[in-house]
């Protein structure tokens, strides 16, 4: 760690300053709550410690909350949920930059228990949410995608923004990826013209193409209740969707279907690329938007983390992005998590000096899941003793 001792103390000033840049513990603690609990634990050992909290997200659920915690303003709007019912969704706005999270309008968390709808769930509400951000004056939109209930290639979103997808009788096709089997005509001429001048950033932690063995239906469809037969139907439907779009987009339709990120969030990435989005890894985008570089300059020790530190963490998840940026700046990084399955050497390669799972303090996994907050505070006490005293 450049200009700093191993204990996290800046050798220039002698005053340690901790930056907490952790993602949520999915299903148990939000990123904001993780930061609050870690701060409480650190202060129990070192009451005067300077701590800065910057909750982070990688584009999936929790992205709007992270933006709001960083100073963006939360705006709520009524939109169409994945099953066609009205839901309240939020986006974040600061100046002319908006952060829109597709899961707010089209996420799995909006489905009733056991209420998967792999063939008919629609992203229409995500389009309505984008339009609301535009109406509020956004000229740059970070579109975080992940946690979707849908596999419709972004067709619903495009329809909400003015596109028309018609069957042989000239009627709108049914909702969801399943409805695209009947698609005959795709008319993009009435798409909202503001997208021509909008800086739309597709922020995702996955780079899958739209279809094929690594495409949205095959890789993520089963998580949304798709049977093997459904996966086949959806893959064929999305391939057909891209083929019909060639009449409007030419060869670009097929190129975008193969592009990294097209398969993100049930293919909504494809719809965003059709709108002119540029794809960037979600955590990189969010660190820029949240002002991570400035906070990192002020820090002598960085604490990151998420619910499970596993192989997926190393491929675009928030802790890996935080650790990479911190390592480049010569800052020490440790991580907190609920579950740890990565060996020390893998953590080291990612730039994480040490990981602290809840199970190191409380071996009972059930208790860790039921009430993780107090356990996380005890974990943070250990970090303070190991790195800051």
From TrEMBL:
Keyword Kinase: yes
Kinase listed as a keyword: yes
Domain of life: Bacteria
Annotated keywords: Kinase, Transferase
TM annotation in the entry: none
Pfam families: Gly_kinase
GO molecular function: kinase activity
Gene3D superfamilies assigned to the protein according to its UniProt record, in alphabetical order: Glycerate kinase, domain 1 (3.40.50.10350), Glycerate kinase, domain 2 (3.90.1510.10)
PANTHER family referenced in this protein's UniProt entry, alphabetically: GLYCERATE KINASE
UniProt similarity note: Belongs to the glycerate kinase type-1 family.
Protein name: Glycerate kinase
Native organism: Streptomyces heilongjiangensis
High-level lineage: Bacteria, Bacillati, Actinomycetota, Actinomycetes, Kitasatosporales
């Amino acid at each position: 760690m450049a200009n700093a001792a191993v204990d996290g103390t800046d050798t220039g000033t002698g005053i340690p300053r901790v930056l907490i840049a952790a993602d949520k513990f999915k299903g148990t603690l939000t990123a904001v709550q993780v930061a609050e609990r870690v701060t409480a634990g650190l202060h129990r050992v070192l009451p005067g410690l300077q701590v800065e909290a910057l909750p982070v997200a990688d584009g999936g659920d929790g992205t709007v909350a992270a933006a709001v915690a960083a100073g963006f303003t939360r705006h709520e709007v009524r939109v169409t949920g994945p099953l066609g019912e009205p839901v309240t969704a939020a986006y974040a706005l600061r100046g002319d930059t908006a952060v829109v999270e597709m899961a707010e309008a089209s996420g799995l968390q909006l489905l009733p228990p056991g209420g998967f709808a792999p063939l008919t769930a629609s992203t229409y509400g995500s389009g309505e949410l984008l339009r609301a951000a535009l109406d509020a004056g956004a000229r740059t939109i970070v579109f975080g995608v992940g946690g979707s209930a849908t596999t419709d290639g972004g067709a619903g979103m495009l329809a909400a923004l003015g596109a028309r997808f018609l069957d042989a009788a000239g009627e709108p096709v049914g909702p969801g990826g399943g409805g695209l089997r009947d698609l005959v005509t795709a008319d993009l001429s009435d798409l909202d013209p503001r997208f021509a001048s909008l800086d739309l950033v597709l922020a995702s932690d996955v780079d899958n193409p739209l279809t094929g063995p690594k495409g949205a239906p095959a890789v993520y469809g089963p998580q949304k209740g798709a049977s093997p037969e459904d996966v086949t139907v959806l893959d064929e439907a999305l391939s057909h969707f891209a083929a019909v779009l060639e009449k409007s987009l030419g060869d670009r339709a097929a190129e975008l279907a193969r592009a990294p990120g097209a398969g993100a969030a049930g293919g909504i990435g494809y719809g965003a690329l059709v709108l002119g989005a540029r794809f960037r890894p979600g955590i990189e985008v969010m660190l820029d938007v949240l002002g991570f570089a400035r906070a990192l300059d002020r820090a002598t020790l960085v604490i990151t983390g998420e619910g499970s530190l596993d192989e997926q963490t190393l491929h675009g998840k928030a802790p890996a992005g935080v650790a990479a940026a911190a390592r480049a700046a010569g800052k020490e990084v440790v991580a907190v998590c609920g579950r740890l399955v990565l060996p020390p050497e893998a953590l080291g390669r990612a730039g994480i000096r040490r990981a602290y799972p809840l199970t190191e303090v409380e071996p009972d996994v059930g208790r860790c899941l039921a009430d993780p907050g107090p356990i996380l505070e005890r974990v943070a006490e250990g970090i303070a003793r190991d790195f800051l005293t």
